[in-house]
What we know:
alpha/beta; Rossmann fold; 6-stranded mixed sheet; 6 helices
Amino acid sequence: MSKAVRWWWIRHAPVDNGGRIYGSEDPPCDCSDSALFTQVAALLPANAIWITSHLQRTHQTAQALVSHMGQEPADLLTEPRFGEQSFGAWHGLTREELRLQRHPQWHRFWHAPADERPPGGESFLDLIGRVQAAVQAWTDRYPGRDLVAVAHGGTIRAALAIALDLDPEAALRLTVNNCSLSRMEWIPGAAGSHLPEHEGVWQVSLVNFPPRSTA
């Protein structure tokens, strides 16, 4: 029996927050796009372990997906380390307000360079660190299983950076749209493999599907 662990990452549904930065804050999301939920739900495995962050928008999205799979409400496991990056004092600002405040240090794809901590917040490097620890713990806990993780844009970028061994700054260029699916798999070493049994490799098979316009 294969001990490979298949991670199915889904970003939560859209949040109507007036275009303001909400990061680690806890607004609800809009799960009304039935066609999109049906499309994504059709791709997900049955009998998976469902994991969300501690923020309500991931719980709401997970339950909506399960509903569109025609299943009973899921037994959701919560992993706070999968929460979105905290932007500290920048929470509540619009992107334009932050751009004006930080000019000319404005970051095109994210709110700040990967190694910068916003006042009272955390850096993308900090986020990668906690996501890596959590992914390792869950991968060790459920060998051979499918893990559906409903999380956040930053969290999923961090997970992909880990799997692809990306430079953190390069990982910030990855697009992760609301309700999109990204998939990665941990393949452990085994008999006949060039890897020792206690080692393994990550493989990424899907990123940001289905693609949607962010305009």
